[in-house]
UniProtKB/TrEMBL annotation:
Pfam families: tRNA-synt_1f
Descriptive protein name: Lysine--tRNA ligase
Encoding gene (name): lysS
Keyword set includes Disulfide bond: no
Main location: cytoplasm
Domain of life of the organism encoding this protein: Archaea
MF annotations from Gene Ontology: ATP binding; lysine-tRNA ligase activity; tRNA binding
Gene Ontology terms: biological process: lysyl-tRNA aminoacylation
UniProt KW keywords: Aminoacyl-tRNA synthetase, ATP-binding, Cytoplasm, Ligase, Nucleotide-binding, Protein biosynthesis
Length: 513
């Protein structure tokens, strides 16, 4: 059983048939792939619950009423004056959206659609301004002593005797981090701000917000949340889930959601993804070089409590090979868990009736570097038995576009190559035996047409008959064509090029003094 199905089964047992699966994010900066793990996990749980005859819906809460906590590395120093203000009330750093929050949310939301995730979106700023939190705020204020006791018992920290579980937004400086609630009466909260302003906030129209440890359980009650994934920081002993579940039960008379704790995602060579540290790779950017199903697959195949290190270089090759295995399992009725991984990795609701094209990723990478147009790439794939006229050109066009971006941005240097128009200078290092070997290869290519396997056998037989090391033989091929010691699989590479060109190049290289 796939982990999503197992947890869905548990959720259905604990929470009943009707469920609301929630995810949330504070858009304090670029919403990266580490953040994406939460909403995809929620999407998988939602799908798995519905697949088991549950009645579930997916929601995403945008915490755009959270304050800007500091001037992050990607911001101008001028943003110091906005620290402490709600993200929805801060200007967009690039001036293209209505607010800071909207700027970092819009691109992510667009990417969600491309990745097959379509949640109902709830903006915290609108929820507060529309009065959706009013009843729960009143309840929190009336039970402030109980909430204070819960937080102190769970976190082992001391809270001021006069503490109120509410953070007014200063009407003067617009800051929510520098205010302190002093008293309340009905729907009014009286506060002081470090800027020197004293005022009153109406809790019915978004002039104040609950602190996170109270906001979270209040939200569960307001939105009817029954299942929610969240990061290990919230799940730590004394963390916000520990306080939240007690506040939910003891203050709001609400059962906390079924929890699914997930680990972080790191970028290989850089560390765990973090907007504040500038270690980010957004799903929108990934869609420019990763197929959408692979972006999902990276997370789908790992249990939530497993750490993921994303390798955009060589890791891309392994991912594509691994994904082919789960695709084969689905269409060939193989291992059930692999088949399920494939289903859950697809952004579309249902897999296509017949298996999609599966040209080896390395072949596509190499073909894309050999020629620059679709028809030529198709010809190369056909000659090596990896393309059929029934396949869709749109599929191949999309893959070519992604591969070209990957080559430009992330491909390891030894994966890149360029066939030299003229004989490379490095052929001068060829030994006499290597030159003779190239001459023999030219003769073989002139005598017959070969398929990939036949030519590969001829190459091996030739250098073995000459008592050559394999390294010497292949080095001579790559030096003659690329001007370097290594390259793509030799037989495939040779057959992908114009035969006359290869024959002439090998003969030319064999005669170098």
């Amino acid at each position: 059983m796939h982990w999503a199905d197992e947890k869905a089964e548990n959720a259905l047992r604990d929470k009943g048939r009707e469920n609301v699966v929630a995810s949330g994010i504070s858009p304090s900066g670029p919403i990266h792939y580490g953040n994406f793990r939460e909403i995809l996990t929620a999407d998988l749980l939602n799908k798995a619950i519905n697949d088991q005859d549950g009645d579930s819906k997916l929601i995403w809460v945008l915490d755009d009423y959270d304050p800007l906590r500091k001037v992050y590395p990607f911001l101008d120093s001028d943003y110091e004056k906005h620290v402490g203000k709600p993200l929805s009330k801060i200007p967009d750093p690039e001036g293209c959206h209505e607010s800071y929050a909207e700027h970092y949310t819009s691109q992510f939301v667009d990417a969600l659609s491309d990745l097959g995730i379509e949640p109902a979106i709830h903006k915290a700023s609108k929820m507060y301004k529309k009065g959706e939190y009013t009843e729960e705020i009143v309840k929190a204020l009336k039970n402030r002593s109980k909430i204070k006791k819960i937080i102190e018992e769970v976190t082992n920290r001391t809270i001021s005797e006069n503490w109120l579980p509410i953070k007014p937004i200063c009407q003067d400086c617009k800051n929510v981090s520098t205010t302190e609630a002093k008293d309340y009466e009905g729907k009014k909260v009286y506060y002081e701000c470090e800027c020197g302003y004293n005022g009153e906030a109406d809790i019915r129209n978004g002039e104040a917000k609950l602190p996170w440890r109270v906001d979270w359980p209040a939200r569960w009650k307001i939105l009817g949340v029954t299942v929610e994934p969240f990061g290990k920081d919230h799940a730590a002993d004394g963390g916000s889930y520990d306080t939240g579940k007690r506040i939910a039960k003891e203050i709001y008379d609400y059962e906390p959601p079924y929890p699914v704790v997930y680990e972080q995602i790191a970028l290989k060579g850089e560390g765990e993804m973090s907007s504040s540290e500038g270690i980010t790779l957004t799903p929108a950017k990934m869609l420019e070089f990763f197929p959408s199903e692979i972006i999902r697959y990276i997370i789908v195949r790992k249990k939530p409590n497993r750490h993921i290190e994303l390798d955009t270089g060589y890791g891309m090759l392994h991912l594509m090979d691994d994904f082919k295995e789960v695709e084969d399992a689905y269409y060939e009725e193989g291992e059930k868990e692999k088949s399920r991984i494939y289903e859950l990795s697809l952004p579309e609701k249902n897999p296509r009736d017949s298996k999609p094209p599966q040209p080896p990723f390395k072949h596509l990478v190499n073909a894309t570097q050999l020629v620059d147009n679709l028809d030529s790439i198709k010809s190369i794939l056909k000659r090596t038995g990896h393309w059929d006229d029934e396949y869709e050109d749109t599929w191949l066009n999309n893959r070519i576009k992604l591969i070209r971006n990957w080559l430009d941005w992330f491909a390891p240097e030894d994966m890149k190559f360029e066939v030299k128009e003229n004989l490379p200078d490095k052929v001068e290092k060829l030994s006499k035996k290597q030159k003779k070997f190239l001459g023999k290869l030219a003769d073989l290519l002139e005598e017959n047409d070969y398929n990939d396997e036949q030519l590969n056998n001829k190459i091996f037989n030739t250098f073995q008959d000459m008592d050559m090391e394999a390294r010497e033989a292949f080095e001579s091929i790559y030096l003659a064509l690329l001007g370097r010691d290594s390259g793509p699989r030799a037989a495939w590479f040779i057959l992908s090029l114009d035969t006359g060109f290869v024959i002439n190049r090998f003969r030319e290289a064999s005669k170098v003094n």
